[in-house]
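Folding Task

Wanted — backbone structure
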Amino acid sequence: RAQETIRRLEGDPDREVRQTARLATRRIGILAVAANPFAAAATPLQIVTFGPFRVSWEATGVGAANWRTAKTRDLLAYFCHHRAPVSKEEIFEDLWPDFDLENAAGIFHTTLYYLRRFLDKAGCREAVIYGGGRYGLRPGISSSDRQQFEELVAAGLRADVAPDTAVSRLEQAVSLYRGHYLADLDYPWLIPDQEKLKHVCIKARLRLAGYYLEAPDYARAIAHLQTAEEDDPFNEDVHGLLMTAYAGQGNRPAVKKQYQKLEDLLKSELALSPSQAIRELCRKLLE
């Protein structure tokens, strides 16, 4: 019953109430994911990549990670991001692009030393491997929320999956998306994956909204769509589904307001107008 109440509060008109409810849902969702069949097998290191980069380990519980340097954290995040060994030349170019080869090599080896010491303290000796001129994490040493997220979304979007199962998988997936991928790192090579994962989450939320509109459970649909709108405010599919959900609630003023919001945004930012399809949808919903 508590979870049901929180879900309904996600559709509250007050922004602060919605944000508090979503935070509570995500915390509940973390517990749900732990019991799902796609949860990663126990590994010495558990990596959180959505939102600020965080690390925990079996031997010492949650590690606040008192990094010796910011680059020590970044190097571990880099290895987790690539999932496969990387040449030192690639590492230099990606993490120290403004340094010449000699200086980059010196800083890299110092940073690698700090990282190995950090991992040793976590009980993960020889976690960083080297071979064939490439560096990376030893297979099986870590698991990440990104891996769970991608597996859950893939399972939830399958054409042959039952609706109840799809909803369960997708809810667990979006609960893992606590913020943009590696949000506290600032490197150009991260941008493609950050955008890809953001849109995968939006796709999952749109599918969930579709299920909830059919139920019908308009409050839950609206909660997911409002979050999707925050991440992709120009997405007409999101605005159209929000208008549909408001119409389902009998809230004609909200339908008009949502359409006007889209129209104003497109005009001010892109000098465009809503598509004919969205204009027709609005007209139909207001008839």
Summary: The first helix runs from residue 2 to 9. Confidence is low (pLDDT under 50) at residues 26-35. Strands lie at 45-48, 54-57, 61-63, 86-87, 128-131, 134-137, 142-144. The chain has two domains: 2-35+155-286, 45-143.
